[in-house]
Amino acid sequence: MTLSTPPIADTRPHQVTAHGVTIDDPWAWLKDPNYPDVGDKQVLAYLEAENAYFEAAMTPHRPLVDRLYEEMKARIKEDESSVPQKDGDWLYWTAFETGGQYRKWWRRPVAGGADELLLDEPALAEGKEYFRLGAFAVSNDGTKLAYAIDDNGSERFTIHVKDLATGALLPHTIPGMLSDIVWTADDSGFLYGLANKEWRTDNARLHRLGIDPAEDVELFHEDDEGYRVAVSETSDRRWIIIATGDHVTSEVRLYPADNPLAEPILVAPRQPGREYDVETHGDTLFIHTNDVNPMWRLVTAPISAPGEWTELIGPSAHFYMTGVECYRDFFIVEGREDGLDQVAVHRYDAPTVAERIAFPEASYAAGLGDNPEYDQTVLRIGYESMVTPGTVYDYDTATRTLTTLKVQEIPSGYDAAKYRTERLHIIARDGTQVPVSIVYPADFPKDGSRPLFLYAYGAYGHAIPPGFSTGRLSLLDRGFAYAIAHIRGGDDLGQQWYHDGKLDKRTNTFNDFVDVARGLIDGGWTSAGRIAIAGRSAGGELMGAVVNSDPELWGAVIADVPFVDVLNTMMDDSLPLTPGEWPEWGNPITDPAAFQLIRSYSPYDNVRAQDYPPLFISGGLNDPRVTYWEPAKWAAKLRATKTDSNILLLKTNMGAGHGGKSGRFESLREAAEEHAFVLWQLGVEA
């Protein structure tokens, strides 16, 4: 195959009618009717043809990919290990070996003794195209390990239990798991959740060791197909939490960890639009909720009367409370003040007084790390910024001092003085100020001559923190600025910021991104056509929307596992995620207004005859979140419709899912490919 002949997908008559509107979809055949078992030879042949075209197009640029890969790899400490953390009688940590794709999990006795290998991911992954470790839970007495693995990217995990004294696996495995694992207090069993045939976790189950999993007790079942069930535990490990909810409503039950078959405590029945989560301290519930304000508040209630809520810390106009965690002598409130992370210690005898941990920079990302013990006086904290590598601190709650335990090592060298970072505010078309985090070389001229890489997500209330990236340095060192647009749809500035980018306000997300780009151009950071943009999953939907609306702005576009066939997906309630997604996007099956709105912006439905920028699109054959046919259909329609000769590449990982290839070096090589595409298309000397 030559570069001049990209594959052309067949068109086959197919129509969908809803709310009096008939829509032609001639590429609908790319959805294998037997999904998730994809065996249709014509579908596979098309995907393989696109992959072959991708390889042909990238072949001349493989030397650049290799250089970028080696740069990125050289910035990674190959024998990287985490800082050991105490949990009971043991210190736990993870470590890579030089050349290793996957971690090994270790521990040693606090009292002294030999290191003990708990789990060898490289051995488990050997010979597999894909490997991912999911849940990992050591029993309370430290004698057993329950863990779950996925070896094809479908996110259907299998639980194994290991006897840590002998190293032997217990005979029973549990396939089809999709949850965390929580041990009972006596370690005779654990709680978990199974995915149903639609890949929805609608249950929480109790497994007793030595008993056939077919006899496991279902402790809770959720009948609403839009809700998902999760299992966790309180910090004191006295209670096991079974929570259910969708994107806007939640409901929590507490089960005694020493008797999970007892009658549970329902903290508060579900009320549409109310979310809450729960911690405990003694006989008191600490309930973090958005019941009266989207900035959230903290209330308490007696465990004996869980519905009697008393406000402890009220909502604030500038502080967005994101979480609460209880320890024996204090509780922690995390949040963001005007978009910047905050961690505060609160004493039980003066609960409204916030002892904020002071961090050294004006823009950063920080939060609680791994703090497994309830009787904890020193807190593990994680910190980074766009110019500061990842740092692990211990915070002494008595002396209120930070001690640096570890700073991310960059073996090839790193000089923070070579870079600058700022937090900008750009006014969107409706007058809203949108924050932008930006990092750039110290000698960067703001005359519009330089290229810029712009990233955003903008959905599900997921904030993108201004953190550190070693891969990003390959762009900065070639003269790029790198910006993160904190657009509406994320919760960077609070939950209302999220609400203002969802449902009937969804287009704010797309407008914010475009307006940020234009504001950066006006500020001399770059110029039209010199901007590379990237988004993943729902961020890929963002990419699809803005290439339809403002194609002239972008010089290169990376759309990874992009959610672009929004209308068809939201109309298909048999797909794994669809019912649970309606609170985010709207239900076009029952709501004509939602149908029309989604139809107006769905990237696939709005491809039109115009010039498009160069596009690099990726998908995963086993992806249960954004199914492989979404990027495939989008690429096929773009090829048939666009009026330019710019390159369009579609790469489908045939043995992976939503996260792309597994293994730290394989994923690094994929990043190198995308960076090479950007440099190639923007004509930046590599």
TrEMBL record:
It comes from the Bacteria. Its EC number is 3.4.21.83. GO terms for biological process: proteolysis. Keywords: Hydrolase, Protease, Serine protease. It holds the Pfam family Peptidase_S9. The keyword Protein transport does not apply. InterPro entries: AB_hydrolase_fold, Pept_S9A_N, Peptidase_S9_cat, Peptidase_S9A, Serine_Peptidase_S9A. Residues 468-683 form the Peptidase S9 prolyl oligopeptidase catalytic domain. GO terms for molecular function: serine-type endopeptidase activity. Coiled coil: none annotated. Residues 10-407 form the Peptidase S9A N-terminal domain. Belongs to the peptidase S9A family. PANTHER family: PROLYL ENDOPEPTIDASE-LIKE (PTHR11757:SF19), PROTEASE FAMILY S9A OLIGOPEPTIDASE (PTHR11757). This is Protease 2. The gene is ptrB_2.
